[in-house]
Amino acid sequence: MNATGWLNWRSLNQEGIVFAIAVVLFIAAAIGLPGFINSNNLVAIVRSVSVLGILALGMAVVIIGRGIDLSAVAIMAMSVAWYLQLLNSGTSDGLAFAYVLAGVLAIGLLNGILVAYAEVPAIFVTLATASFVFGYVRSQLITQDAVPVPPGHWVELLGGLRFLDIPVEVFVFAGLAFAFFLFLRYTKWGRYVYFAGDNPVAARNIGIPVRPMLVLRYVLSALVSLVAGLLTAASLHSINTRIVNSTLLYDIVLVAVIGGIGLSGGRGGVRNVLVGAALIGILLNAMTIIDIPLLYQNLIKAAILLAAIIVDGFINPRDEQTAQQGDI
Amino acid sequence: MKIIRTFMAAAAALAVSAFLAPGFAAEDPGPAAYSQALKGKRVMLVPMAMGFDLAQGWAHYLKTEVEAWGGVFETRDPNWVVDAGAQAITDAISSDARPDVLIIHSPDLNSYAKLMKKAQAAGTYVLLVDNPANFPADAFVGSDWDRLGQLEAEAAIKGCGPNSSKKIGLVQGDQANSSSLYQYAGIMKVLDKNPDFKVVAKPDSNWDATTSRNVTTTMLQQNPDICAIIDFWDGDATGASAAIRDAKLEGKVFLVTTGGGEKTADCDKLQDGTYGAVVMTDLARQSGDMNAVIKFLLQSGQPAGTSHTYIYTLEKATTKADLKPDSCWDLKALQAQAAAK
């Protein structure tokens, strides 16, 4: 607000624009679509973007630190598929989980070390590890695209868990969002993520352990992916590795970027992820209620993303001072 | 006298020929011709991916048959990537070991049309399996998707019953794959004849279980009194069933889907009530049909691209009531059998 009481449109950034679009859509849907404002439907909206949002949280931390993790979906699907395959072939639960956890940590470490110490661009490293994880697990460790959860296993029970009629993944999403918020806002290492993302060389010069922190972020992202995978399997009672070929990865980046986390690093936070997830959730739900075919849904989603980016480009024009080296 | 001599000579000749006849008849010319026409012939299967029940079932049955008649059986795994499938077909056509028969599971109506034409020009017979395409292949073996859709709609109407809300929801695949488009057409044909039954929503799942769950959740939210849902594939119908479970509408919403009749994918789920009815493809018979067509084409001497046959597999809607021990085939058992060899 400025002195005249009007909203100062120059102070709007992409997050604000997207939030405004989300609110407008929400109001329009609430008025125009019967059953939209129903509490069960609102829960369904949040739930439908929970796994996406969880993955976007991991992605956000990596992007803020000026990186990108294209292996998130591969790790999510393949780790859980391997876990379920081990269980189905009779490995004890503890041992199976230990294997999978070790595998996930190893891939996170590999991503981080290659980016931090070998200085290979993150986009290539994670693209390669994504293919490796998918190819290795699919060809060597599992026999089928879809792996079912063994009946009565805790993953299946997890999927049926409800508090106040709200599915468990909503709470996990909320909990993780809060934890990431605390980490990024109030811990020393969390603040360092921004310094390292904004200007890695300067951050290193003032004594921030830039490289170990970089590794940490990729490990964090890998672990978050495992959680997202377990929640997916919990709900569907199986995991289908075909999801690796889907547009989920782009949707994760979309949620982070549309919420206003700059791909050049150093900007954004948990709030941006929530705003991005809210927009996507409302949009998809409304379009499903109106019964718009999938092709048009993708078109509308893409058009809104483009619009947000274009408006942001007008309001916050890039120049030599704001542009950074390493912009993607 | 002369006539008697002639008679005797004739009798002797008859006796000799009768004596020789068994040895002569034992040499059936069929197997030799069969073996000569088929021996060493190469058959290649290019499904949309090797990692799902249909493809693994086809591969198992075809391999057994092809190798039994002395042929070579190969598969390629595009892993759901259309480009990778195109690459596999291109490589196959131009390689030294060009397959004599190419079995293609087309991802949509048009993608591989040019390549299939090229294959036929090179002398390779092209069989389309499961998914029709806009291309005159030597043979199409698979489901009549329109008929399959009709069976699904009939099962849904039966599952709803006459005193229900008569509201049906559809979870389509996508708007490009022929199996989805024709299935929809078939369903609508039956519903046109039953005008009191209405489709209240028809979202796409894009063949993804999570999307299927989300759209079904919304659909049930908007129409809690839906009596049946038809999900276009058992690969993603697990999502629709999760939504029904979450909405606590188990037993109230009759879920109909279609699949390859694999045990864990279909029969187990019919048994535990997840699915109300599944229109199942008899995969062993479908593979048998393919094998018969392959054997016919290879012996026919007919140039590739000159015959156009449609061989539709017999489809049947199976419910829990008519589930039999042999209603499904068991992928795990096939894999164990293959591993034991």
What report would you give on this structure?
The complex is a heterodimer of chains A (328) and B (341). Chain A has helices spanning 14-32, 39-48, 50-64, 72-88, 93-116, 122-141, 154-160, 168-186, 188-198, 200-205, 210-236, 248-258, 270-290, 294-315, and strands at residues 146-148, 162-163, 166-167, 238-240. With 328 residues, chain A is mostly helical. Chain A has one domain (14-26, 34-311): ABC transporter involved in vitamin B12 uptake, BtuC (Orthogonal Bundle), CATH 1.10.3470. In chain A, the strands form two sheets. Chain A has a two-stranded antiparallel ribbon with strand order 1-4. In chain A, helix 3 packs antiparallel against helix 11, helix 4 crosses helix 11 and helix 5 (93-116) runs antiparallel to helix 6 (122-141). The radius of gyration of chain B is 26 Å and the shape is elongated. Chain B is built from twelve helices and twelve strands. In chain B, helix 6 packs across helix 7 (178-193). Chain B has two domains: 32-144 and 283-314, Response regulator (Rossmann fold), CATH 3.40.50.2300; 145-281, Rossmann fold (3-Layer(aba) Sandwich).
Task: Please give a handful of descriptors for the protein shown.
heterodimer, A: 328 residues, mainly alpha, ABC transporter involved in vitamin B12 uptake, BtuC, two-stranded antiparallel ribbon, two-stranded antiparallel sheet, 3% strand, globular, disordered N terminus, B: 341 residues, alpha/beta, Rossmann fold, 2 domains, 6-stranded parallel beta sheet, 6-stranded mixed beta sheet, 12 strands
